[in-house]
Amino acid sequence: MVRYRQLVSGIIIGAVTATCVSVFGASVDLPIINEVIKFEFNEKQKELPEGYSVLQYQGHTYVPARFIAEELGAKVDWDENKKTVKITKSTIQPPVDSGVQYEKIPVTYTKDGIRIEIYSMVLEKNRTMFYLNVKNTLEQPIQLQQSKVSLVTEGNEKYTSDKVDTNILFPKDMTWYNDVLKDELKSGFILLPPLKNEEKKGIVHLEFIENDGSGKSFSFDIPITW
Question: N or C: which end of the chain has fewer CB within 10 A?
């Protein structure tokens, strides 16, 4: 009975042949434990853990839910009150080695005549604050587009400036409403929503426009770690 309880907790995979036997002259389907069925996940063979078996019954194959779910990266729980097997798969994908070289703050990044230094970061319960210096060596004035600031973490979570808590007193820095002129250095902050505690790396996205009527824009993706 113990082995059957383990099996009945996971009814997942469909039909194979059933075996019929004769009991008192009648044809009756009885559950059969099949010890020879193998499992492959992404072309890698996995052994069924000790204490689990595969059950064949009435044209179906029944396998342990915990074994299958955990091999697929899900969590399995048994709710005794509801008599329910709960299978939960995380929506966060494991980080992939993309080859990105993250640099620890302070970070300086120069491109297209614009130098950006992210020199400090403050993590709070209701916001994430970056402090930066911007130096313009172009002939034209430039302006930081605060509405387009974002951060994509190594865990593939995206945080955008439009999701900042509207109850914060200063959700945008007045500094960036003004142009950064040629050879001028401006300092200010940008805000994003609060980050999850486990996040330690990400790419900050910034956009600038030439504020001379041309509409020309510059984008920066700066990999940082904190």
Answer: N
